[in-house]
């Protein structure tokens, strides 16, 4: 199936220009990437516990033809800064957090095209339960569901579920790899497409002979079950993944269809993206089929001057400490302990459990950020957080998006907000028309496409043939051999 992200007839430096994919980036919390804005009278972040917030946001994004609403999530607070959770709670730095899956059905009911990418962890719940929930959501949304695969790392989150010590970083990815194989077995291999027979005369709704029992006996998981939900429009939700550490990159090259990357400069992102595309090719996949979405926070005015005025206004409400709480948690560096002016290095990260790719983001110098110090982090962290902030007219911001596409080989952007829904309204009303004028953003979408079809084209609602999950499809399914601990002889027939 041809890739949906076609290039148009216009070219730049002899190369066709990509169609840019845009996701709205939000989180079911008061302070996502720009903590403190809840004090801003123009911001509705504190209303996210009301269903109306999500319904209104979905309608705005649908109006702008936004590809998906990408929802972050977390399972514990950030307690690296000052060695305490207090400032995380006090500054509402991703606290409190509600469950992102609950409002999805309501948003799907008021939209036809908007897809939803939901963060969920491979660490904290059995794969059978996650498979059931995502199959349900895929049914209820008509196939508009994506899953942002994460492995959990926070000590506070592990302690919340009764585990004292988080799983080691690379071990988490080994566990996640097996987790995904279990899910492919449930989603792709358990049910035949012909299992739903609806035979009225014989009182038979499902043919049990066409629903396979999965016998999975691995290092981390043991299952003897059939999937309890019949195949949804996509079977497997569209697969996002975040993390560009060596272990994360290897995992992504095998499983991810889209990858969420962060970096304050195209020069920082380009080698990471090139490496994952190379690894994907080694896995037998089309490297171009993996779509990279970069975090990006726009502050848009009708003119550059108006945008600068908006920046000055939001700075009044920014929580510097809230931003430092987030970055300290992501990087494992207690920024409260570092002297002003000190160049931050990876050696400052004394916490074992952290986001390795985020540590790289805040310790890798570039033309845009030649030196990372506590002062620089403090300025950046409270507005936009993880990625670049672009301030200007629609033309200025569009130029910057095109620069990232051109120099880093990204395919799209997870657009963060400073104020919500204000930032998203500016994207829809100001930025989208400019991108359309340039011919790099679709004028309209066909109704009824699944999340995967919106990326790969109509008809590609299921996993591509070169994806590892396709090897578990019902008609070609072969059960994996049981795991044998090292040193123990394999069982013989």
UniProtKB/TrEMBL annotation:
<protein>
    <recommendedName>
        <fullName>Luciferase-like domain-containing protein</fullName>
    </recommendedName>
</protein>
<feature type="domain" description="Luciferase-like">
    <location>
        <begin position="38"/>
        <end position="406"/>
    </location>
</feature>
<dbReference type="InterPro" id="IPR011251">
    <property type="entry name" value="Luciferase-like_dom"/>
</dbReference>
<dbReference type="InterPro" id="IPR036661">
    <property type="entry name" value="Luciferase-like_sf"/>
</dbReference>
<dbReference type="InterPro" id="IPR016215">
    <property type="entry name" value="NTA_MOA"/>
</dbReference>
<comment type="similarity">
    <text>Belongs to the NtaA/SnaA/DszA monooxygenase family.</text>
</comment>
<dbReference type="InterPro" id="IPR051260">
    <property type="entry name" value="Diverse_substr_monoxygenases"/>
</dbReference>
<dbReference type="GO" id="GO:0004497">
    <property type="term" value="F:monooxygenase activity"/>
</dbReference>
<dbReference type="GO" id="GO:0016705">
    <property type="term" value="F:oxidoreductase activity, acting on paired donors, with incorporation or reduction of molecular oxygen"/>
</dbReference>
<dbReference type="Pfam" id="PF00296">
    <property type="entry name" value="Bac_luciferase"/>
</dbReference>
């Amino acid at each position: 199936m041809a890739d949906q992200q076609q290039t148009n007839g216009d070219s730049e430096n002899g190369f066709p220009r990509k169609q840019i994919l845009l996701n709205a980036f939000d989180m079911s919390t008061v302070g996502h990437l720009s903590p403190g804005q809840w004090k801003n009278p123009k911001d509705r972040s504190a209303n996210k516990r009301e269903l109306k917030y999500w319904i209104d946001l979905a309608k705005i994004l649908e109006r702008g033809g936004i590809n998906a609403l990408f929802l972050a999530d977390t399972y514990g607070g950030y307690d690296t800064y000052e060695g305490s959770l207090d400032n995380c709670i006090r500054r509402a730095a991703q606290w409190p957090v509600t469950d992102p899956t609950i409002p999805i059905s309501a948003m799907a009911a008021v939209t036809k095209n908007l897809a939803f990418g939901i963060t969920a962890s491979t660490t904290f719940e059995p794969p059978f339960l996650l498979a059931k929930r995502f199959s349900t959501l895929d049914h209820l949304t008509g196939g508009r569901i994506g899953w942002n695969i994460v492995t959990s790392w926070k000590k506070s989150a592990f302690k919340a579920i009764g585990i004292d010590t988080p799983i080691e970083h690379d071990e988490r990815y080994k566990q996640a790899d097996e987790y995904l194989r279990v899910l492919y077995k449930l989603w792709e291999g358990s049910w035949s497409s012909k299992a739903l027979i609806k035979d009225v005369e014989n009182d038979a709704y499902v043919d049990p002979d066409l629903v396979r029992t999965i016998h999975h006996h691995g290092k981390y998981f043991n299952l003897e079950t059939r999937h309890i939900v019949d195949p949804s429009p996509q079977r497997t939700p569209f697969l996002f993944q975040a993390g560009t550490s060596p272990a994360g990159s290897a995992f992504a090259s095998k499983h991810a269809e889209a990858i969420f990357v962060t970096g304050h400069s195209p020069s920082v992102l380009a080698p990471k993206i090139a490496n994952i595309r190379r690894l994907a090719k080694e896995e037998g996949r089309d490297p171009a089929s993996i779509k990279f979405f970069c975090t990006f926070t726009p502050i848009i005015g009708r003119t550059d001057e108006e945008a600068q005025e908006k920046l000055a206004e939001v700075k009044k409400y920014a929580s510097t400490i809230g931003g430092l709480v987030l970055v300290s948690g992501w990087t494992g560096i207690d920024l409260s302990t570092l002297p002003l002016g000190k160049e931050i290095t990876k050696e400052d990260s004394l916490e074992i459990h952290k986001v390795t790719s985020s540590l790289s983001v805040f310790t890798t110098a570039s033309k845009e950020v030649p030196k990372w110090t506590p002062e620089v982090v403090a300025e950046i962290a409270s507005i936009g957080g993880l990625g670049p902030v672009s301030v200007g007219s629609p033309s200025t911001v569009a130029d910057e998006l095109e620069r990232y596409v051109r120099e880093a080989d990204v395919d799209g952007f997870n657009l963060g907000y400073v104020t919500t829904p204000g930032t998203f309204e500016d994207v829809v009303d100001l930025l989208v028309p400019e991108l359309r004028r340039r011919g790099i953003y679709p004028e309209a979408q066909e109704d009824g496409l699944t999340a995967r079809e919106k990326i790969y084209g109509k008809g590609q609602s299921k996993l591509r043939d070169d994806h590892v999950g396709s090897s578990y499809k019902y008609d070609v399914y072969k059960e994996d051999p049981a795991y044998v601990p090292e040193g123990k002889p394999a069982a013989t027939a």
